[in-house]
Structures are given as structure tokens and as C-alpha cells.
Amino acid sequence: MNGRDLVRSWWSVGVAGAARGPRTVRAAWRRRGADATGPGPRVRARVPGAVRTVEPGPGGGVIRFARSELRVLVAVNGAVFWGWDGAGPEPSYALAGACPEPDPRAELEPDTDGGWRVVAERVTVAVSRHGALEVLTPGGVTLRRDLPPRWWEAEDGGPARWMQRSEVPADARFFGPGGPVEWPRPRDGAHRLRNGVTGTGSAAPVTMPVQLVVADAGTHLLFVDNPWDGTLTLREGAEGAGSGHDRVGTSELRMEGGPVRGWVMAGTPARVLLTWASLAGAPALPPAWAFGHHHVREGAGGEDEVRRVVAGHLERGLPLDAVHLGDGHLDGGRAFTVDQDRFPKLPVLADELRREGVRLVSVVPAAVRAEDRRGEGVFPDLPDARVRYAGQAARGFAGVWHTVDGSVPFGRVDALCLGRAAHEGLRDEGPADERPLVLSPSGWPGSQRYGGVWSGEGAVSWPGLRASLARVVGLGLCGVPFSGPDVVGGARDGGCELYVRRLQLAAYLPLLRTGAVGPADGGPWEHGAAVPGHARVALGERRRLLPYFVTLAHLARRTGAPMVRPVWWPAPEERELRDCEDAFLLGDALLVAPVLEPGAVRREVRLPRGRWYDTATGRAYEGPAKVLVDAPLERIPVFARAGAVLPVRAEDGGTELEVWAPAPGRSGGGLVVPESGDDGDGPEAERYSVTRSGPRVVVRRETEDGAQEPSRPVRVRGLDGTGAQM
After folding, report:
1. Which of 366, 451, 581, 660 could bridge across to 640 with cysteines, CB 3.0–4.6 Å?
2. Which of 622, 671, 625 is nearest to 642 (CA)?
3. What is the mean pLDDT of residues 297-322?
4. Where is pLDDT greater, at 510 or 9?
5. pLDDT level of residue 35 (50, 70, 90 thresholds)
């Protein structure tokens, strides 16, 4: 098996700049169509059978059954690999490098009833004599049980479809896969594991065969390393009235072909995502300006129209950090071209806007139109690591965003390789002290190594607003921390109110892009006379929190922890928090409760354990509790954790520390990572501690030489005498 076998449904294409002709593309389409129809008549299903022989090795070994074999490996980072029918962990586009070394202290040993097991420090893996694989905690509590897989093989020797059923504890909750669900916790039923586009060409949510499962016994993540189309069917369990009456949760995975292999990692949520990042790669660190306000301009106007849009934002006091040029700036819609009639001096325009703090970002369609055959598309040979974008930095672009035509079945692994080509090309050609921005509408585990995900405008409706939050949360739990929806307007289903609520939510998500549905191409002022005032507040708060977003991005790169987290993240053992789907944590300091229903001016918020301050009123609340708070159209409820230290933008443009007072007799603290402006991992994190004694709050910077006075201005909040409310 080689890397090409993993992507049978890819386009057969040539290297950019020397692409193959339309005949090759049409042949690739015929092969893809044949793959899509699946193999011919089937024989009866094949199962592994009983154990025959065992070959122990470092970290595990190979167990041979009557009709198949299973390879089990426990790596030094605690991750568990399993692969059937000779499938190994490599080659894999998901892995950031070579497979991690096996744990030398773990090996196969006999288990009860003719089975085998591998005992490691963080996990135990048990394999029954008929091929069921069970992952347990060090204390012996079951986290998941995968039943033996089943294959349906073609008589003509083509690819075999396969399925595998799994069981999890009755109290477990499923999260993932990626962003195709309308709720942070996917509902029972079937979920298609494929990417695509809607009939209008809008990007579909990213789907990844990654599943996070949270239960009382612990948290674990499952990654099935197979890019073929498939279906995941989920059914949550239920606890009965007594022992023996529980109904376990189940998941059933059916794939159209490809290898039967995957990884499992267990522990706390933070430990799981750290291990996952060590396998799939650390997330790319976006440039600092990428956490500002982006505006998408799709129209066919030229350079003066771009200047008009930028001036419109600045005149109305609306912060703007980037303008994304859509297909309208391309010559005939061909990627990597510029319409010279409308953009004759694009580099000059880019330099002019950069002096005002605004970057230009170019759209790049997935297909490249041939010079001599306008209208016919060719595609770069994406698996070739030599493929790079060229010339984008010279045109003045600081980043790219990819789109997919509605007729093109854009693959998940295609998006990963396309992101690599863009990231490495911009990095090599751009200024040495600037990091590139790459956004894609699709992806595969490992895509985070090169950029983030924009999930399109989605449905311009109140259910679509809730779904946009679910996608960002889901992607974060799959290892993609930088994502966000497009904030667009429309008269249907909500109008001005819906646009404002979408913008208020996006102001607290990693990626904030505004745009339009229809011919309008200006800013928020085109969505209603009352919108600019509300937008000014939301975008102003986003600008104030930029240092905090930068810190979270650095921490995501170093630890794999998502920037946007479900409220159960610090306390997965609290069951009520697992079911909270209408709020989220931004880092560990802020809890954001967006308004997701029309006409709402108050809403109920579930607070985790500890003291929380309403950032608008300063009132303190003690959790765990449900509180009813005001949510006027001017703002959404946001709470700060007592003892938190947030880096925020000061009025003079510098960075100051916003400290929320701990409860009397308690302490707190936080990390700050200042923006470095280079392509490295950034400077060392600054660690601050906070203590409170009566009305006095003391903030110290903790260093190797001991505690010191902070070198940044400090502003303490929460000491206004309002007291804690139950």
C-alpha cells in the first residue's frame, strides 16, 4: 500500500504551471465515476475468525486470525494504533511525520478466554479471540469496545466495503465528526463522512472521521485513517434504573473502501488533544492581523471600489484588517490571474492599504483554467510535495482563501495538499517576518498544519446561526482551532436582528469574516440603518481582545487545545455541562452565551463551578448555577472567570492586563504570549499569578528568578462591591 492507494478518488492532474491537458482530466473523471459506483457483485461478508498465531513486538504486535490479521501498537505518547489486513500507520497524509516510536515497556501478553492484551501506563488494550478490540483505563474501566470488522469483497477483486460497530459507556456523549452537524453534540442517526458543496456552490462543512467521546470514566478520541466516503451512525446510550439495565452507546462506521485502521488516545480532554496534535501536527500560527475583521468582496468592481469599501469602514469607525477579493478580480475566473483592466496596479493598491493596516487576500479556485482552452479546468498534482503557489506574494497578497465550484467534488485530502502548496509558497516568497494566511472550505486531519477553515455563510437563518457555532466547536475538538463562518445579511428570516446576532457571535470566534448575499458588496451599513452602531460595538470589542486571541493561538499551537471550547472542557465529569450546547468557552477565561433565538432580550446561561463575572455589569455569580441575564440587541452575555488574567488592547494601542478579582481568599492567574511577528513559535509565555486578601488584589509575574512586578499596565475588575449572586 502506498500513498496513492489512500486517495483513489483523487483527480489525475499535473503540476501547476505544467498541468496535463483536458484528456487526462476526462480520464480521471471516468475513473472517479467507476470508483463511485463501487465494485460488482458481492460474496458473503468476511470476518476475522478465531486467533491462530501471535507475533509480539515493541509496543504491541500482530495477532493473526483465520481470515485476517490485526496490528496493535501503543506509542510512547500513549496513542494506540490498530490496523487490519496488514494496514500500518504509514503512509498517511494525516500524520505530521513518521509514526511515533512504540512504547518499549508495553507488549502483547495472554489475556483471559484466549485473548491478548497490551498494558501501558495510560491505557490498556484488550483483543478477544475473535477480534473485538477494547480500550480501557489503567484502572480497567472500559472506554470503548470495537467489534470485529466485516468486509464485503467484490468478486472481481475490487475494493472491499467494510463496517465496524463500536460500543461506549451508557453515560458517554459523542462529539465530532468535524463540522457537518447542526449541534455541538451530534444527534442520533446517520452522518455522511464526505465533503462537498451545495447546489449554489457554497462550501459544505468539513467532515473528518474524528470522534471525541466524553464519559465518566474518561475522554478518548478516535481517528479512522481512511479518506474514502462513508457513513457514521450514532446512538447515545441510556442509564437504567439499576445494574444491568443500562443501554450502551453505539456507533457504526461503514466505508466504501480503503484501509481499516485508526488511532485511539485517552485521558483528560487537554491530554487527548495534546496527543492528537503530536500525531497530526501542531496547528499553523496565523498572523496577528488574521484575528481581526475580514471583509469579503465578491463584486466585479476594480481598485477604486476596494478603496471605497475600506474608506466606508474607516469613516464609520468600523475596524477593518483584511479585504478578501473574490472571483471578480480574476481574469476570466482563472486562478492565479488578475484582471489588468480593473486592477492595473494591484501591488501599489496592496501597499497603500497595508499602510492603513489592511491586508489583501486573494481567492484561489480549486480548478486552474488552461491558457489555451478557456473554460476547461486542469488541476495541480496535489500529492506532489514540490507543488507550490507562485507569484501571490509579489502581487501584494498576504494570504489566500480557497473556493470550490459547485460541480467539482473536492476531496478532503485534496484540501490538505492544496493548503500545503499555498502555505509553503506564500511562506517562501513572502517577507521573512510575516506568516501567511491560508483558508480552505474543506480539510482532512493534518490540514491545521497549513491554515484554517472557513465554513461559508451557511443557512442565513436562526438554525443556521446555531449550526455555525456547532461547526467551530466541532472543528476545534478535531484539532482545527482556527475557523469561523461568514457573517452575511439578507432580508429573509431575521433581517437586521439576525445579522447583528451573527456578527456578535463571530466577534468571539477565531475567524471573523463579513460579506453579503446578493449584489451588495459593501460593509455592515448595507444591512440596515441600525446595524453600524451595533457593529461598531461588536467589532470594537473584537479589536480590544486581539492580544487574547493571539495568546490563544500560540497556546493552541503548543498544546493542541482549541481556542473555542465546550463548557465541559475543564470539568468533563460534570454531566449537565456535557449537554450545554448554547454557550462556549473562549480559552479558559471567558464564557460566551450568544443569542440564538429571534426576539430574545434575556437568556438563561448555565455557569460551571466557580465565580463568574458578567463583563457588562460587573455582577458576580457563583456556579454551578443557571442564571437569567439581560441580552439586549446591543450585546450578548459574556462572563469572565474569577482570577483570570486577559491581555487586551489598551486605548494607546499597547497591551494591558485585565484582571478579574478572585473570590476572597482565593487565587488565580493566566498566561500571556506576546505577538512575535516572525514565522517561529513565538516568545516564551508570560505567567501571571493573582491573589486576593480582602479588598486588595496582587498581580505578579512568575519567572525563573521569582515573582516580579508586572511590566505591563494592570486593570483590576470585579471589585465594585456588587457581590456574588446565586
Report:
1. 660
2. 622
3. 92
4. 510
5. very low
Contact of 547 with 328, CB cutoff 8 Å: no
Instruction: Quick: pLDDT tens for 516-526.
Output: 655 556 789 98
> Is residue 445 within 8 Å of residue 478, measured between CB atoms?
yes
pLDDT value of position 433: 84
3-class state of residue 135 by DSSP: strand
Please tell me the distance from the alpha carbon of residue 447 to that of residue 78, in angstroms, as a whole number.
Answer: 23
Taking every pair of C-alpha atoms in the chain, what is the biggest distance, in angstroms?
79
pLDDT (tens digit, 9 = 90+) per residue, 72-116? 999 999 999 999 999 999 999 999 999 999 999 999 999 989 999
Cell numbers 426576539: residue: 599
Q: How far is residue 523's CA from residue 535's CA, in Å, rounded to a whole number?
A: 10
Cα–Cα distance list, 577 to 217, 580, 608 (Å): 16, 5, 7
pLDDT at 441: 85
Q: Is the peptide bond before 91 cis (omega within 30 degrees of 0)?
A: yes
CA-to-CA distance for 666 and 689, rounded, in angstroms?
11
Distance (Å, rounded) from C-alpha 409 to C-alpha 398?
28
Q: Where are the beta strands (DSSP E) in 526-601?
A: 564-565, 584-586, 590-592
**Per-residue model confidence (pLDDT) at position 718:** 94
Mean pLDDT to the nearest integer, 227-251: 88
DSSP per-residue codes, 660-708: EPPPTT-EEEEEE-----SSSS-SPPEEEEEEEETTEEEEEEEETTEEE
Least confident of 63-72, 243-252, 348-357, 422-431: 243-252
Judge whether 551 and 575 are in contact, CB under 8 Å.
no
Q: Which amino acid is at 465?
A: L
* pLDDT score, position 49: 97
Residue found by looking up cell 478532503 in the block = 412
Which residues face 80 on adjacent strands? Answer: 74, 264
Residue 10 has pLDDT above 60, yes or no: no
Which helix (H) or strand (E) segment holds residue 62: the answer is strand 60-65
Report the half-sphere exposure of 216 (CA within 13 A, side-chain side).
8
Residue 659 burial (CB count, 10 A): 26
Which three-class secondary structure string do you get for 366-432? CCEEECCEEEEEECCCCCCCCCCCCCCCCCCEEEEEEECCCCCCCCHHHHHHHHHHHHHHHHHHCCC
In 3D space, the residue among 481, 620, 463 whose CA is nearest the CA of residue 550 turns out to be 481
The Cα 392–Cα 422 span in angstroms is 9
The whole-angstrom separation of Cα 287 and Cα 359 is 11
Task: Give the whole-angstrom CA distance, residue 13 versus residue 25.
Answer: 7
For residue 563, what is its C-alpha cell?
481556542
pTM for the model stands at: 0.91
Stretch among 30-34, 218-222, 505-509, 522-526 having the lowest mean pLDDT: 30-34
Cα–chain center distance at 518: 28
Q: CA-CA distance, 195 to 211, in Å (whole number)? A: 16
Q: Which residues are within 8 A (CB) of 496 and not within 5 positions of it... i.e. 6 or more apart?
A: 527, 528, 530, 531
> What does the alpha-carbon distance between residue 120 and residue 118 come to, in Å, rounded to a whole number?
6
Confidence bin at 12 (pLDDT 50/70/90)? very low
